[in-house]
Batch of 3 targets.
Target 1
Amino acid sequence: MSEMNKSREDGETTIFKKIIDGEIPAEIVYQDDLCLAFHDVSPQAPIHVLLIPKKEIVNVAGFSQDDTHLAGHLMLTVDKVAKLLNIENGYRVVANCGADGGQSVDHLHLHILAGRALAWPPG
């Protein structure tokens, strides 16, 4: 298995797993049986929320065929979160994958960015 899509079987507990388990507080926006959304502690836009699956998946390359329902659920939940936050003029969804993709936590997370016009290309 490549480093980019390694499983969480390495025994390391990520900060996001600690948030899921309630060991670290977070400003939670939305939660259901499969995922959790919370405000990023280092926002890159006026609205910056992270949406994470409760299942420990390293990144989008770590999805398996068994995760088809979860992947769809995450994407449908993005719009639920946007509506909860009263985002009206659009938003960007980003999933960083691997070191070169800018991923800093080895737990899949979708960035929901809004509240200002977002430039393209992103960086």
Target 2
Amino acid sequence: MIVCVCNRVSDRAIDSAVRDGTHSFDLLLDETRLASCCGRCHDCAREVFDAACARHGVTAPAGLPGTARLLALTT
């Protein structure tokens, strides 16, 4: 299923990203450009991301705002 029509991001792409190590929703948004145009897919994308994390046994960290998120990724 296409989750983000604007950027053509599917549920399979989200699942693949989680499987490949994207364990932060904010990072997923940055990497895939989900919800970066109209934003209507944000809630659905979050649900698909959470389900993918559960399926792969990943505990997703809470979203960190802007700079704090970048600092957390580099340390």
Target 3
Amino acid sequence: MEHESVLRYLDNLGQRTTPSGAVALKLRTALAAHMAFEEAVEMPPLVLLPELAKGIVRPDMRWAIEMSDKVLAAHDKIQGYHNAITAAALGLQDAAESEHDEVTVGFVRDVAADDLGDAEVTEPIILLIGTFLRSRLPPQ
């Protein structure tokens, strides 16, 4: 739902004929690419966290190792997403500030904080999930 809300806001902003409209579409493109990867590869292993935090490990959790490996293998691609998001977010922030659009400035800061959280917390957690499961499950 968060992804849909963010993209919808950027779609609406992108209809403006001001500089922020054009930059909003750049941010939307960068975010949509990352969000698609996030939904397909990064988010699924996170559902295991409540059980893993309790020390529960079952063989049917092995699928998350493959997902973790995909995140590791896509490190450069993911970094590219974050770089594109940062550049577009900074551009939108500048445009919104010059247009005195404080709502969009706040929105951009929230997007940037979320993206930083992905890079510094979510993605490393996914790698830890894979490492943890690999250490607890017998090799196949």
